[in-house]
Amino acid sequence: MTLDQLALRVKKFPIKESFRDEEVGLRCCELALDALSSGNYGVGAVLLDANGYVLIEENNAVFSTRFCSSAHAEMRVIDKYESDFRETYPPGQLKLVVSLEPCPMCLSRILLSGIGVIKYLVKDSAGGMVERMSDMPPAWQNLANLQSFYHAHASDELCQLALELSQHNIVYLREALMKQRGNEK
Ligand SMILES: [Zn+2]
User: Fold this and answer.
1) CA of 60 to the centre of ligand 1 (A)
2) Which of 173, 163, 167, 170 has the alpha carbon at shortest distance from 64?
3) Which domain holds residue 161?
4) Per-residue pLDDT tens for 48-101?
5) What is the domain-level CATH number for residue 148?
């Protein structure tokens, strides 16, 4: 599937309102599409306040302007939250929704941030860490007990779209990542 085809699917996606996280989930997919369009990994994240209003939206930006290894969508959301919103919005009342299961780096950051609820549309069997929480060190697992992690309540069609967005261009992006190391053999 081409990027244009994915873009059309995102644009025309028929929201199923019976799913609680469908609307914010689609927003994550739109952000993931923006990321892909700018040469980044297709992942998007949204931070909601206690009433469900959007506070922050970010996408993956690892390859934007200059390489930044930490510029995953979740990390960018938390950076912005901690610099601009933490005084007003206690983290335990907030909800972070991500199109893809967080990786080890982002999971660690999420645990330290204290954000109350984390939801993701699709499992990342290759790189996700939430579903491998029992492999985290004990102190980190203790932190995890203070937070709630869920699969988002979204339609199968939306989750499938999030999965395809996360996998799009993945071979090219891996090559780009390896190129950053400067030790190609
Ligand atoms: Zn990550």
Assistant:
1) 9
2) 173
3) 3-12+22-166
4) 999 999 999 999 999 998 899 999 999 999 999 999 999 999 999 999 999 999
5) 3.40.140.10
